[in-house]
Amino acid sequence: MHFAVFFFAFALTGTTLALDNGLMRTPPMGWLAWERYRCDIDCENDPKNCISENLFMDMADRLAEDGWKELGYVYVNIDDCWSSKQRDDQGRLQPDPKRFPGGIQKLARYLHDRGLKLGIYGDMGKLTCGGYPGTPLDKIELDAQTFADWEVDMFKYDGCYSNATEQEQGYPLMSKALNATGRPIGYSCSWPAYQGGLPPKVNYTQLGEICNLWRNYGDIQDSWDSVLNIVDWFFENQDVLTPAAGPGRWNDPDMLIIGDFGLSMEQSRSQMALWAIMAAPLFMSNDLRTISSGAQSILRNKMAISINQDALGIQGRRIVKEKSGIEVFWRPLSKNASALLFFSRRTDMPYRYTTSLSKLNYTAGSYKVFNVFTDEATSLKDSTEFVVSVNPTGVVMWYVSAPAKFNLRQFYQGGTLHGRVYDDREENAIPRVFL
Amino acid sequence: MHFAVFFFAFALTGTTLALDNGLMRTPPMGWLAWERYRCDIDCENDPKNCISENLFMDMADRLAEDGWKELGYVYVNIDDCWSSKQRDDQGRLQPDPKRFPGGIQKLARYLHDRGLKLGIYGDMGKLTCGGYPGTPLDKIELDAQTFADWEVDMFKYDGCYSNATEQEQGYPLMSKALNATGRPIGYSCSWPAYQGGLPPKVNYTQLGEICNLWRNYGDIQDSWDSVLNIVDWFFENQDVLTPAAGPGRWNDPDMLIIGDFGLSMEQSRSQMALWAIMAAPLFMSNDLRTISSGAQSILRNKMAISINQDALGIQGRRIVKEKSGIEVFWRPLSKNASALLFFSRRTDMPYRYTTSLSKLNYTAGSYKVFNVFTDEATSLKDSTEFVVSVNPTGVVMWYVSAPAKFNLRQFYQGGTLHGRVYDDREENAIPRVFL
């Protein structure tokens, strides 16, 4: 049923109906305060980590000076707990005067001067999740204009203390209001996360028309369990979620916690790789002032980033789930290429997984294979059996290039792979001869 | 009830009734194959990692040449899957001839030549857990003698495929048999792990008399969840377990998985610190040929090792469990010192925990405090409120020295701290004036 509904919806809307602000044709990248800094407002005792303009300027400096910006990490996003507890005498939101003495516009200019963009946060309830003034229906136009006046570049609209009816009105209304300001402002909607993330409560066609990205599911925490929980949900529901994604409209499984406290290096590579397969926004939430070189090298991996940022914008899928705990994910990419990801859920020792490209539904031919995390390159015939050794909780990620004879039609009709909406964008990835 | 039973038992046995082989007066340290290498016998396809004499010689080389030995890591322990599937024509166990062509005695001498010791593995059932020949009751004397003939230094006796009655006979019998060989062989008993780890099924007084160490609980896996699960069980049952431990007789929460795939650096420090508090055997199960410098520095931390190896051999306890997810552990040490461990179960951000030494039951005075993982030293009055910032899933570990005016009697009678058996060994840690 869902499949039929979505196929129909998709056929009607085609591929062009993303939010018409021209933004985020590839998943947005940058830095977001929440997971790492939460609602720490104790600037007296914890001046380096509290939510203040200093924190965002520090991160902006690191993004601009340490080469992150050139890799694509350009957004610096404020989350909850930035504002004063009172609106100003004209009813406008205002930042906490002690923690943001320069104001938001000055902060935005600080970022713009460095080639970066500023994101800000609001909530549809009377209060934000953290208890700061919300942006209920009657404040939407005012607050959208305030953000535009401040030269903000992105807005995350959370949903604490709002109900389904308000959300149904408010999320489209904010989209309109942001567009009406004339300033291009990327729009992140928490709406689906508050409605369970699935149809019929969630209408992904509509979301694609009004939001650039949306949080489908609960908040990430600094633990491998949390990453796995998110990954499970997104791939168990891939038949619903993958058709929703595309240039300008992205599912958001939440922040990258690489560089924080809870993930091993293997697990950090796994998050980076899985987020690349999912065409997920890449918002780091970490301390760029002290991040380890190991975590940096994962977040800076150019091939993983280029897979994430592929121009086709097709969200990848899980195509194999073995009893051994090995899973295989696949994402079609532009230039007849694709990404293949081997992931181990085991907790014992490296597992030697044997398969072949033809078993993974690649058509006959000889392929070039680049290992994303080791930079090794090889050639591989579709019929050649190969062994990949996958570490516990780790991944092996491949970029697979020409001849890329993907027989997508067969692929979508195959045994374990049915249920995927056939998307004509993908035809660009396939040599005409196969269509 | 348990408390009374144990107090009585302890009073009867006193502190001297450890297995009378003079071994392991401090927790044994070394390397053990199982967690990292399991039953990998595929030497054809995985020659560097399969269970073979080469693996153990490789690890011996690393222990001897890379400075591990000088830190105390001297055991190199074989686990399951080392033997031939058949006993020899005289009924003796024999190693797999392809994987151990030189035989066990030659391997033992290779280790002894490098100042190291060799451990080996057997099982009380007809078969080991991995399906190799076991050492049932009627083979105990023969196999003990075989191990002694091979100049083995430690023996782990597993319990797969044996029942409670056999275990009740077999574990003491093996103890006798090992002693009867005249060769000092450290004896690790898996008995309590097969009987749920708790009285009345498990008699820790008897275990202390026949074994040098024993596995109380299930196998560790390469994940933080597994470490937490073990830590939970050991500290929830600390009233039963701590009196059982002492010089020559140790609770064994299983191997260190630091340097493998599943733990972050924070979590690795936490395992090292918690194992030190528990006076646990320190058997690494990792690849010493490729281990990262970060993991090495944790495993080589001299102050953590010296806390683990403290001559009093008193197992530490959890003394505080906050709703915030902060827990505090304490272990009395020789020279009037103690170890304090602050641990965070949070998965958000560093938590600033406020307390004082007097709140942690230290008596009046000024203490010297050494931070185990940062090498910082400070002085601290018992009454001074201090803040420790504890990272998610991480620890702050202190070595606290003189004046060490621990009022242990008050400590054990205190609100949250009752239920600990008062141990007269501990009086050595306390200035006489306080007793």
Task: Tell me what you see in this structure.
- The structure is a homodimer of 435-residue chains.
- With 435 residues, chain A is of the alpha/beta class.
- Chain A is built from 15 helices and 16 strands.
- Chain A has 2 domains: 29-309, TIM Barrel, CATH 3.20.20; 317-401, Immunoglobulin-like, CATH 2.60.40.1180.
- Chain A has an 8-stranded parallel beta sheet. In chain A, strands 9-10-11-16-13-14 form a 6-stranded antiparallel beta sheet. In chain A, strands 12-15 form a two-stranded antiparallel ribbon.
- In chain A, a hairpin with a 5-residue loop joins strand 13 and strand 14.
- The longest helix of chain A has 17 residues, at 164-180.
- The radius of gyration of chain A is 22 Å and the shape is globular.
- Chains A and B meet through helix 2, helix 10 and helix 12 of A and helix 2, helix 10 and helix 12 of B.
